[in-house]
Design brief:
The chain folds into 2 domains: 5-36; 45-94, no CATH class. The chain has 5 helices and 2 strands, in the order H-H-H-H-E-H-E. The protein has helices at residues 5-18, 24-36, 48-53, 60-72, 81-84, and strands spanning 76-77, 93-94. The protein has a two-stranded parallel ribbon. Helix 5 links the parallel strand 1 and strand 2. Helix 1 packs antiparallel against helix 2.
Length: 96
């Protein structure tokens, strides 16, 4: 995972609690799982050139996730249906 993943997930947990989609207890549990989770973190800098090259149809942040998924042969997990349907996406995506 790119290092900024933690900020994005923490923000999503906060938003879910704020909008009452989850309870405060669920938010605390999710945040604790985020902090304790065993994830392989990767540096973003080596992905930047290719992410920048895709700026015509992806945000640079989205492109980093897409490129990483391509490199490790993973699926792209996203709630962003526009991202999942982006032209030229070379990885399968999982959406809600």
């Amino acid at each position: 995972m790119p290092e900024h993943y933690f900020i994005e997930v923490a923000g999503a947990i906060r938003r879910a609690e704020y909008t009452k989609a989850i309870t405060s207890a669920q938010a605390l549990s999710a945040f604790d799982a985020l902090r304790r989770g065993r994830l392989h973190r990767v540096q973003i800098r080596p992905l930047l050139d290719e992410a920048w090259a895709r700026r015509g149809h992806l945000t640079v942040a989205d492109a980093v996730y897409v490129i990483l998924a391509e490199q490790i042969g993973a699926r792209l997990v996203t709630a962003d249906l526009k991202l999942a349907g982006s032209p030229g996406l070379r990885v399968p995506s999982i959406t809600p």
